[in-house]
């Protein structure tokens, strides 16, 4: 499957979108389905390949978004793409996706759009994040959820739920 072309098709129109798909988690860059997890995270029982989904479904995923969306977020009063006040570990993507949703963007989960995400092993955590103990990760997660709810006046984060099936855009294939 041509994951990159499918991503570009979602960003080809004038709509503001966050796009993600099955996560290929591996120590090396790959889109081999054997390394994919959450293959049909937003499956709602239909035959559709793509869904408009809850902003929380973006959590723990890599995302594809356009410069237009980043500009829209800045114009709506946010001065950063990712909120630097988020501390510890986790929910950074959820925070970004919620602000994108408030700016009028759609959150799209497409089973034809593979997303590469570096594997979270002990070496990766210690080297890049200095997160070596489970209790440190849990504390960071709790702090970020509390901050996110307070910042956006949410009683709690919503469940992932099911998506609304949408047709994939039919645009010409990429050239070159």
Key attributes of the depicted protein:
single chain; 176 residues; alpha/beta; 5-stranded mixed β-sheet; 3-stranded mixed β-sheet; 15% strand
What would your notes on this structure say?
With 176 residues, the chain is an alpha/beta fold. The protein contains five helices and eight strands; from the N terminus they run αβββββααββααβ. The protein has helices at residues 3-10, 67-75, 92-102, 122-129, 134-152, and strands at 17-20, 23-26, 36-37, 50-52, 64-65, 106-110, 115-118, 164-166. A five-stranded mixed beta sheet has the order 5-1-6-4-8. The protein has a three-stranded mixed beta sheet with strand order 3-2-7, with no helix packed on it. The longest helix has 19 residues, at 134-152. The radius of gyration is 17 Å and the shape is globular.
Secondary structure topology:
Elements (H helix, E strand, L loop, with lengths): L2 H8 L6 E4 L2 E4 L9 E2 L12 E3 L11 E2 L1 H9 L16 H11 L3 E5 L4 E4 L3 H8 L4 H19 L11 E3 L10
Parallel strand pairs: 1-6, 2-7
Antiparallel strand pairs: 1-5, 2-3, 4-6, 4-8
Strand residue content: 15-25%
Largest β-sheet summary: 5 strands, mixed
Instruction: Classify the secondary structure makeup into a structural class.
Output: alpha/beta
Roughly how much helix do the residues carry, as a percent range? 25-40%
The total of beta strands comes to 8
- Tell me the strand order in the biggest sheet: 5-1-6-4-8
Order of helices and strands, N to C? HEEEEEHHEEHHE
How many individual helices? 5
Gyration radius, rounded: 17 Å
Q: What does the average pLDDT come to? A: 77
- Enumerate the spans where pLDDT stays under 50 for 5 or more consecutive residues: none
Shape: globular
Through-space gap between termini: 17 Å
